[in-house]
Backbone:
C-alpha cells in the first residue's frame, strides 16, 4: 500500500466518525493553543523588560550607597551617606568613563495654580539626560550654569506635566516646591514604567545643587549615574570605579564596600534569566494539556482497533502485512494530532491577541515556536498512536475474522 493510499484510507476512517474525531482533536487544539499562548506571553514579557532596561541608557552603570552597621544592627542598602560630589569628579577622570552625573532624590509636593501633585524629586546634572538617553523634546534641560548657581529651574516628567498643566504649555510657567518658585524649562519625553515597575514619568528634575541647598538639605548623593565609553568597556569601567571608590573611601582590604556598582548588562542578564524561567514554567504547565490530548488519541485509537477488528482480519486475509496495518493506524493518529496542532496554533494566536488587547499583556510568538508546535503535535501522535497501531498489527487474522 503506497503512502497516498494510506492517507486516503486514514481520512476516510476519521471522517466516518466526525464528532468523535473532532472531540479527540480538541485535546490537542487546547494543548497546542495553551502552549503557544503561554510561551508567547512569556517571551513578550521578556522582550518588554529588556526594552525597558535598554531605555535606561546604553553602557550605563549606577553607583549606589551601601549599607552600614551601627550598634550591632545592619542597615539597608543606601543607609550609608559616603557618596559625595568629589566621587563623581574622580569617576569622570577614568579612561573608560564617557560621562557621569550626580543624583539626589526625595519626595515633594508640586503646586501650580489650584493644582498640586505629590511626586518624586531627582536632583541631577544636565548630562544625566544624555546618559539615560532621555530626551527633553519640549523646552530644554537646565544648564551647567544653573547647576553652579543652584538656580530654581525644573524639568517636568510627562505625568507631572499632564496632571498639573493638562494641554497647557508649561514652558516658562512657575510652579512652587516647598513654597519656593521654580521656573519650568522643559518636559521630558514619556518613558512608561521601569523594569522594576515604578512610574518613570512621575518625577521632577532640578539641578542637584538646588535640591541639596534649597529642598532636601542633604550634602551626600543617592546615586552616581555613569556611562562607559563602549559596551565592551562596561565591565572594566565597573572594576575601575570599584577600585577608585574603595581607595577614596579608605576601605581596608577584606572589608565590605560601602557602595555598590550595577551595570545594565548585568541587570538585563538577570531579568532575562528570570524571564526564561517564567517562560519555561508557563510552557510546562500548558504542556500538561498536550499530554491529556495525547492520552485521548491513544484511547480513541484503541477503541477504533476494537471496532475494526473484523476489518483488520479481512485486510490481512487478502494480503495486508503487519507493517501495512500498523502504518494505517499510526497515520490516523498522526493526522489527528497534526490537524489538531494546526488548529491549536490558530487558537493560540487568537488567544494571545485577545490577552494583548484586553489585558495589555505583551506577547511575542515566533515562527520557530509555531513550527515546533506542529512537529511536537506530530510526535505526540506517533508516541500515543504507536501502541494501538502495534496492537492492531499483531492481531491474529483468524481470530479477527471470527470477531463479532
Residues:
Amino acid at each position: 500500500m503506497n503512502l497516498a493510499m494510506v492517507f486516503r484510507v486514514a481520512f476516510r476512517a476519521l471522517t466516518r466518525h466526525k464528532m468523535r474525531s473532532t472531540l479527540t482533536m480538541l485535546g490537542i487544539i487546547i494543548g497546542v493553543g495553551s502552549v503557544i499562548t503561554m510561551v508567547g506571553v512569556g517571551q513578550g514579557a521578556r522582550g518588554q523588560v529588556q526594552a525597558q532596561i535598554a531605555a535606561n541608557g546604553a553602557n550605563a552603570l549606577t553607583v549606589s550607597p551601601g549599607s552600614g552597621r551601627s550598634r550591632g544592627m545592619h542597615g539597608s542598602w543606601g543607609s550609608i551617606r559616603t557618596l559625595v560630589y568629589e566621587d563623581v569628579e574622580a569617576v569622570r577622570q577614568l579612561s573608560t568613563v564617557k560621562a557621569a552625573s550626580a543624583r539626589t532624590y526625595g519626595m515633594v509636593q508640586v503646586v501650580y495654580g489650584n493644582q498640586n501633585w505629590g511626586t518624586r524629586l531627582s536632583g541631577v546634572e544636565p548630562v544625566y539626560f544624555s546618559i539615560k538617553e532621555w530626551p527633553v523634546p519640549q523646552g530644554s534641560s537646565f544648564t551647567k550654569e544653573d547647576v553652579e548657581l543652584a538656580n530654581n529651574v525644573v524639568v517636568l516628567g510627562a505625568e507631572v506635566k499632564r496632571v498639573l498643566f493638562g494641554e497647557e504649555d508649561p514652558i516658562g510657567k512657575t510652579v512652587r516646591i516647598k513654597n519656593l518658585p521654580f521656573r519650568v524649562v522643559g518636559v521630558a519625553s514619556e518613558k512608561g514604567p521601569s523594569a522594576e515597575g515604578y512610574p518613570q514619568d512621575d518625577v521632577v528634575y532640578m539641578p542637584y545643587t538646588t535640591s541639596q541647598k534649597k529642598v532636601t538639605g542633604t550634602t551626600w548623593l543617592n546615586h552616581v549615574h555613569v556611562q562607559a565609553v563602549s559596551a565592551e568597556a562596561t565591565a572594566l569601567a565597573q572594576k575601575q570605579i570599584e577600585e577608585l571608590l574603595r581607595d577614596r573611601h579608605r576601605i581596608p582590604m577584606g572589608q565590605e564596600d560601602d557602595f555598590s556598582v550595577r551595570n545594565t548588562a548585568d541587570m538585563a542578564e538577570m531579568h532575562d534569566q528570570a524571564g526564561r524561567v517564567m517562560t519555561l514554567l508557563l510552557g510546562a504547565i500548558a504542556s500538561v494539556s498536550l499530554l491529556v490530548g495525547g492520552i485521548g488519541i491513544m484511547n480513541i485509537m484503541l477503541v477504533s482497533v476494537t471496532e475494526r477488528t473484523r476489518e483488520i482480519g479481512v485486510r490481512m486475509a487478502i494480503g495486508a502485512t503487519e507493517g501495512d496495518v500498523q502504518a494505517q493506524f499510526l497515520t490516523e493518529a498522526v493526522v489527528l494530532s497534526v490537524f489538531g496542532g494546526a488548529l491549536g496554533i490558530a487558537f493560540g494566536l487568537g488567544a494571545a491577541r485577545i490577552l494583548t488587547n484586553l489585558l495589555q499583556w505583551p506577547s511575542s510568538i515566533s515562527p520557530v515556536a509555531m513550527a515546533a508546535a506542529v512537529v511536537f503535535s506530530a510526535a505526540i501522535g506517533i508516541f500515543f498512536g504507536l501502541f494501538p497501531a502495534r496492537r492492531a498489527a499483531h492481531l491474529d487474522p483468524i481470530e479477527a475474522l471470527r470477531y463479532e
Notes: Residues 70-78 have pLDDT under 50 and may be disordered. Residues 81-257 form one domain. The first helix runs from residue 3 to 16. The two ends are 26 Å apart (CA to CA).
